[in-house]
Amino acid sequence: MKPSKIMIHHYLLNAVRRMGINALDMCAGFGRASWFLVQSLTWGKGFRAPFSRLVFQVYQQGVLSLPIILVAGLFVGMVLALQGYHILVGYGSQEAVGQMVALSILREFGPVVSALLFAGRAGSALTAEIGLMKTTEQLSAMEIMGVDPLKRIMAPRLWAGIICLPLLNLMFCVLGIYGGALVAVDMLGIYEGSYWANMQGSVEFYDDIVKGVIKSLVFALVVTWIAIFHGWNAHPTSQGISTATTATVVQASLAILALDFVLTAVMLGGF
After folding, report:
1. pLDDT reported for residue 168
2. pLDDT digits (tens, 9 = 90+) for 193-222
3. 154: confidence class by pLDDT, cuts 50, 70, 90
4. What is this structure's pTM?
5. What is the DSSP-derived secondary structure letter of residue 2?
6. Which CA distances in Å does 192 have to 86, 97, 183, 199, 201?
7. By the 8 A CB rule, do 222 and 118 touch?
8. What's the chain's average pLDDT?
């Protein structure tokens, strides 16, 4: 039996209605997240206590993320040097391996990979921590006592993420460049002087280093924002915390890759 025109019309109306509802929900969620970000960026009264909490969060997010960042940077640089050498040697340009490694890491691999690792390690931990605080009603207890949890809990974590990720990115780049030197000079036999000379001659402070740090700052804001927002809105159950943690990693990773394209296009004059 073929569906009638009335049934098809009703189905299309329902599909359009669902699309509209989903679009409105997305706009409302983005609005709540934006207002949440504005409130979380402000400190409470006083300076000493917020500063001590900030230092603790810098340790939690930055220092404890150092091992994975440094190890990943070392191996990324080694892989880039190995792959780059076997590509460039066919053109007789193997001396440019240092230049290729440095520019690739400073412009793209450093900011993007360090942000992805930061989202997986620190972002998921932030969401789980805040979600657990909500489950155990610690946030509600603060509100009852007249303490704003956005300023006491969210603001130090947000600013710590913004501070930590650019520094982690720079450490990632340093280890990546030295990892590339380890492979290119010690394993593949490229002259050490040409490796470092070509790198120094091609790397520019503003176009390569500063723009990479700007990318890291944007990634840090977005990743930490997504992490604390999902923790704040997590359902106070074990399943809710698990879902929020997964959403943090997925959304932060996609946001990093999308923003990387936008920022690269803007910095290169594509827009």
Report:
1. 95
2. 888 888 888 888 888 899 999 999 999 999
3. confident
4. 0.86
5. P
6. 17, 11, 11, 11, 14
7. no
8. 85
- 3-state SS, one letter per residue, for the chain: CCCCHHHHHHHHHHHHHHHHHHHHHHHHHHHHHHHHHHHHCCCCCCCHHHHHHHHHHHHHHCHHHHHHHHHHHHHHHHHHHHHHHHHHHHHCCHHHHHHHHHHHHHHHHHHHHHHHHHHHHHHHHHHHHHHHHHHCCHHHHHHHCCCCHHHHHHHHHHHHHHHHHHHHHHHHHHHHHHHHHHHHHHHCCCCHHHHHHHHHHHCCHHHHHHHHHHHHHHHHHHHHHHHHHHHHCCCCCHHHHHHHHHHHHHHHHHHHHHHHHHHHHHHCCCC
Query: Sign of dihedral through CA atoms 4, 10, 11, 13?
Result: positive
Instruction: Say which DSSP state 121 is in.
Output: I
- Which class for 175: exposed (0-12), middle (13-18), buried (19 or more C-beta within 10 A)? buried
**Structure tokens given for 192:** 């050490």
Q: Where are the domains of the chain?
A: 1-40, 46-267
Q: What distance in Å separates the CA atoms of residue 108 and residue 165, rounded to the nearest whole number?
A: 14
Q: What single letter denotes the amino acid at residue 55?
A: V
Using an 8 Å Cβ cutoff, are 195 and 91 in contact? Answer: no
Q: Please provide the DSSP assignment of 169-197 as one string.
A: HHHHHHHHHHHHHIIIIIIT---HHHHHH
pLDDT one-digit tens code per residue, 170-179: 999 999 999 9
d(CA 191, CA 201): 16
Instruction: Round the CA-based radius of gyration of the chain to a whole number and report it.
Output: 23
